[in-house]
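Extended Data, record Glucanase
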Amino acid sequence: MAWLRRRATLLILLLGLLAVSVTPVVAASPIDQTDGFYVNPNSSPATWARNNSGDERATRIQSEIGSQPIARWFGDSSDIGGAVADYVGKANSHDKLPVLVAYNLPGRDACGGHSGGGAGSVGAYREWIASFAAGIGNRPAVVVLEPDALGDFSCMDDTAIQERLDMLRYATEKFVEKSPNTWVYLDGGNAGWVAPETMADRLDAAGVRGTRGFAVNVSNYYTTDSSVNYANSINTALGYSAQFVVDTSRNGNGSNGEWCNPGGRKLGVPPQVGGEAEMLLWVKTPGNSDGECGIAPDTPAGQFDPDLAIRLIDGT
């Protein structure tokens, strides 16, 4: 009988070891792993202020915008993995949390038209986003995934929409696989664009349940309150409480219904953890043009314009 007791004891020990071996490893929060957000010294407003120190606007632009933690946008690159790794490495060396934007879907900004471009094919995008995620690796980071991607359906056919959803789901899987300490937020549009029930369906189809959550108001002007209400409505439609972040970079005066360089807008509250959302972030770079439109008709999308920056500082 003694040998039976020994076998039973060994079996219990073996089962205990197996239970330990299959316990999932939960990644630590990237916020808890770092000491504040990373401020990019080479953001477009910081670079402009540094290169134009004799301009009377430079000090204000640097103080109000260039010194803030602003997300860095990454598009097509021959070495996206290296570019991302370099940026995240610099943030990591200062114990700071970088915020990145992945913006390279084929046919991006398909309906708006001002920021067109992106990868040349589905295969090219898959390779690009896998390299992007690998560039982050195990280091802590926040990624906003493909602004406008789920709102920009009106000029796309069913095949193109399904391809886009498949690419976004693939992207979410690559971040889980290759960058486990990254919080990824799928872009969820803004309060004036797509009904929350429709956006919830699109987010679900794009794989939001495999991410940290979603982002709202990216590159737009809706107030934080209206953006939070919109995000909460999306969560109601989703049927669970996904985390969300709000872009507050230019929402200080709210929206006047225009999205492309409208006048009278203002900087919003600086980036922070909390604030009715998981985080309030500056995803869009204040002073970077939305396109050749509005109060900057001669400034291409993505190009820094000091006059736009000053008007956002002053709210004019």
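Summary. Residues 27-314 form a domain with the TIM Barrel fold (CATH 3.20.20.40).
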